[in-house]
Amino acid sequence: MPETTFALIVFAGSILAGLLGALTGLGGGVIIVPLLTLFLHVDFRYAAGASIVSVIATSSASAVTYVKEGFSNMRLGMFLEIATTLGAVLGAIAATFISTAWLGLVFGLILLFSAYQAAHPKLQDEGRQTTQSDKLARQLKLSGFYPGPEGYRVPYGIRNIPAGFSFMALAGALSGLLGIGSGAFKVLAMDRAMGVPFKVSTTTSNFMIGVTAAASAGVYFARGYINPLIAGPVMLGVLIGAVIGTRFLIRWRTQVIRTIFAVALVLLGGYMIWGAVPRLFH
Question: Does the N terminus or the C terminus of the chain have fewer Cβ atoms within 10 A?
Answer without folding.
Answer: C
